[in-house]
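Service request form, structural biology core

Requester: graduate student, group of Dr. S.
Request type: structure prediction, single chain
Budget code: on file
Notes: please return the result as structure tokens.

Sequence provided:
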Amino acid sequence: MKILLSSVLLTLFTSFAFGQNAVDKAPLCTNQTVEKISSRGVRLGITLQEILNLFAENNKLTAVNISYPENAGAAVITTIELDFQVTLERHQEYAKKNFGFSFASLGVKNKPNFDGISHYDLGFLDNRLAFFNVYHLKPKWENIEQFIGKLSETLSLPDAKEWNFNNRSSVNCDDYIVEAGESYQDEARYSMLVSSKIDEILRQRRKKAEDEQREKDIKAFRP
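Core staff response, request fulfilled:
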């Protein structure tokens, strides 16, 4: 399970940090509902079990862990095979202890539907998909602008010139954000992240839990 959850904080908070400039701007694609923004059947709002079913083969899932060793020059990907039912139950258990949130990085094996894709990062809130990041092995895009142009065309998003260009290029779509990423260390150089704005929900839940615990501790305090 450590492989499933090892990069959760890095993935969650870097994604929201890079998308913050897009959040601050007025939405550019309010008519594009989140249900239409999908990747090979992966889309926000579907259940944890539905997502795991997409990736399962013979009742098994392939978990992915990525590391960046010093002086290696490239990312190192390791995988482990997990039982479907055990993974489902562990996600549900983990979410109960983490304000409804759980995370997984899953490989796609050799499924034809996922041709050209390395793996997905998947974040769940209350057992529904709250964000996904898909890592593409092909085509070999000339640059990030060309990649964004194709995303805009196929997903009916605003033109590349309307995107906010930063470390990750992003566009604000009202209740969710679409980001395009580029990494020179990964074989899957280009990625697309689609995320609902769950950071505030998690922040409020965490604060409520902290306030309740503080109140209990104050009542039980003895000098």
